[in-house]
Specification:
Number of strands: 0
Helix content: 55-70%
Oligomer: single chain
Radius of gyration: 40 Å
Strand content: under 5%
Length: 203
C-alpha cells in the first residue's frame, strides 16, 4: 500500500507531498538558496606598500631620547670647530632687526604666560619655559656683544636685575605646580555639593 497522506516521502523528505509538489519545493529551494559570496581578493603588496611598512617600523623603533642624545653628542666637536674658525669680531647686517625680534618674542612670551596662568590654563608652562630660554639667550648675547665701558655695564645691569630674574621666574612657573582656581578645586566643588543651599529668610 502506498502512503499518500501522512507518510514520509523518501525521495523528497517532506511528508504528504505529491511528485508535482516535490518538484515545486525543490525549485523554490534552489531559487531562494543563498549564493556563496567569494572572498574579496587582496591585492598583492607592491614595492610602495612594503616600503611604507618598513618606514613605519623604522619610525617606531627610533626613540626620541636617542635622537636627542645623538644630536647633543654631535654638537660637542662642532663647538671646537666654531671656536677655531669663527672670527672674534664681525660686521653683520640687520643688527637692529635681530634685537627687536628677540625682544618682541620675549614680550609675547611674557604676555601669553600671564594670560594663560590667569585663566588657569596649564599650557602656561610651555610658554614660560620658552620665554625663560629666550631671556637667558638675551642676557648672554647682550653681555658678550657689548662694548667695554658703559655699554657693558648697562648690559650686565640689565641681565642681573631684569632678564635673569625673569628667566628664573619663568623656570619656576614651568617646573612648579599648576595654578588651581577655586572653580577647579575638587574639594571645594564636593563641599558645595554636600552643603545644602540656604533659603533666604523672610522677616
Amino acid at each position: 500500500m502506498t502512503d499518500t497522506g501522512g507518510g514520509a516521502d523518501k525521495a523528497g523528505g517532506v511528508p504528504g507531498t505529491t511528485g508535482r509538489a516535490r518538484k515545486e519545493i525543490r525549485a523554490m529551494t534552489t531559487l531562494f538558496a543563498p549564493t556563496p559570496t567569494a572572498a574579496p581578493a587582496t591585492a598583492p603588496a607592491g614595492p610602495t606598500t612594503a616600503r611604507k611598512a618598513r618606514f613605519a617600523l623604522l619610525l617606531r623603533r627610533i626613540r626620541p631620547e636617542s635622537v636627542l642624545l645623538a644630536s647633543g653628542a654631535a654638537l660637542v666637536p662642532w663647538l671646537y670647530v666654531l671656536a677655531r674658525t669663527v672670527p672674534s669680531t664681525a660686521q653683520v647686517g640687520h643688527w637692529n632687526a635681530a634685537w627687536v625680534g628677540l625682544d618682541a618674542l620675549e614680550a609675547l612670551g611674557l604676555l601669553s604666560t600671564a594670560a594663560l596662568r590667569r585663566r588657569g590654563d596649564d599650557r602656561h608652562r610651555l610658554t614660560a619655559a620658552a620665554t625663560g630660554a629666550l631671556l637667558v639667550v638675551d642676557a648672554w648675547f647682550d653681555t658678550v656683544t657689548a662694548a667695554p665701558g658703559g655699554e657693558l655695564a648697562v648690559a650686565v645691569a640689565m641681565a642681573a636685575c631684569a632678564e635673569l630674574p625673569l628667566a628664573a621666574l619663568c623656570t619656576a612657573l614651568a617646573l612648579g605646580r599648576g595654578r588651581r582656581t577655586v572653580r577647579d578645586d575638587p574639594r571645594l566643588t564636593l563641599a558645595r555639593r554636600l552643603t545644602p543651599a540656604r533659603r533666604p529668610t523672610t522677616e
